Amino acid sequence: MSRLLGDETSEKFKGAHLIRRTIIYLCAAVLALPSQAEEEATATDVAAPSGGGATPVSFDAPGYKRRPFVVSLYMREEYDSNIFTSQFDKIASFKTVAEPEIALNISDSRSFIGARYRNSTTYYENRAGDPFDIAHYFDFTLNHEFNTRLSIDVTENFRYSQEPELSTDTAFFRREGTYIQNSFHTGASYYITRRLYWNVGFDHDYWNYKDQLFAFFLDRTSYTGSTGINFAVSPVTTTSLNYEFIDTDFKEAPRDSISHVLYAGLIQTMSPEWTVKLQGGAEYRKAQDAPAYIGPFASLETSWNFLPTSVLTVGYNTSLQDTNQSSFNYSQTQHAYGTVKARLTYDLTASAGADYILNTYPGSQGVSGTTSDANETTLVYRVSLSYMFTPQWMGELGYSYTTLDSDFVGSSYNRSLTSVGMRYTY
């Protein structure tokens, strides 16, 4: 993990504390303003990037469609036991996080347009050098139905982050280095018959790191073309056959690769409360200076709505993934996970989850030639409680624990994160 080293003068630390105090006072003043829409419903569902990179944002959550715009502010205090996710030099710190967000949504019977900006500013109580990390998130989405047969969708996601945290429903992961990342997706679906439809897609993914060392190994652009044919066997069963072509070009490092992915899919509705999704196939990848490699591509997920407002999700997936371990071209990643979210009362919601991630680095895919296989195992546990004081005000309490066991020197670490926060949505 890159670190900010060096001693700072007492005047600079006084200035940082003054800035932090000012931010808190301003946020408190904003939150004190009376609501003009107390009869309207709940907090915005905020989507975030996943551990494998950026995920296109969906604005279809109910909170995004209740009015043309949504404004929210999330303030929280955290205690991080290992802010640099370090194996040998653990540093703990309290952190103050402010996340204002604004979203604009325009829709009619055939189209939906959404745009969103979110800022995340984190202040570290105990970190040498600059105590602030700042991230900017810009998202745009467009869905349009030309007629009953043809529809298109477009998403654009831009990220600028300093030592960012990537979050999923159950886990927090830290990505090294300050970077700019942009992902673009466009796709179309066409119903050939009432049961048979065809989809095509194109994705562009761009990574640019500020640190020169990270930039040499990790700056890259990838292009993905995809197509699939889908058949509704019955109202509760849909099958598909899919193909993807992926071209990954690194700016400096000799890690370019081309991939072909072929897989079949099944979506089965077992009951109104229980759904199963299954994908299975293989991926052929040829890296620049390494032999071709064939790995499994599979995904299984099942969701059970055991109560009207409660859901249990369990899943597993495996695929070849680009990696920040720059001595290898990629890893075979296996990810097993489970989450449960239960509404205990009208105002109180509890959630819990766990992730098991195994990254296997084939020795044949060493950037400098054949080497020994390597493994990394990550375990993440997380629990949280949220309480709705009013339709606009929500309090949140959370705890997560992460442990990573790695064959790479200095990469293993343990980390716990405790947080308490308030969210206001208008």
Overall pLDDT, averaged?
Answer: 84
The biggest beta sheet is recorded as: 18 strands, antiparallel, barrel
CATH class: Mainly Beta
What's the total number of strands?
A: 20
Low-confidence runs: 1-65, 164-174
Q: What is the string of SSEs from the N terminus onward?
A: HEEEEEEEEEHEEEEEEEEEEE
Kindly describe this structure:
- With 426 residues, this protein is mostly beta strands.
- The chain has a single domain (10-425), classed as Porin, CATH 2.40.160.
- It has helices spanning 10-31, 212-218; strands at 69-80, 93-107, 111-124, 132-145, 150-161, 165-167, 172-174, 179-191, 196-209, 220-234, 237-250, 257-271, 274-287, 293-307, 310-321, 331-343, 348-361, 374-388, 393-406, 413-425.
- It has an 18-stranded antiparallel barrel. Strands 6-7 form a two-stranded antiparallel ribbon.
- The longest helix is centred in the first third of the chain and has 22 residues, at 10-31.
Topology:
Elements: H1 10-31, E1 69-80, E2 93-107, E3 111-124, E4 132-145, E5 150-161, E6 165-167, E7 172-174, E8 179-191, E9 196-209, H2 212-218, E10 220-234, E11 237-250, E12 257-271, E13 274-287, E14 293-307, E15 310-321, E16 331-343, E17 348-361, E18 374-388, E19 393-406, E20 413-425
Antiparallel strand pairs: 1-2, 1-20, 2-3, 3-4, 4-5, 5-8, 6-7, 8-9, 9-10, 10-11, 11-12, 12-13, 13-14, 14-15, 15-16, 16-17, 17-18, 18-19, 19-20
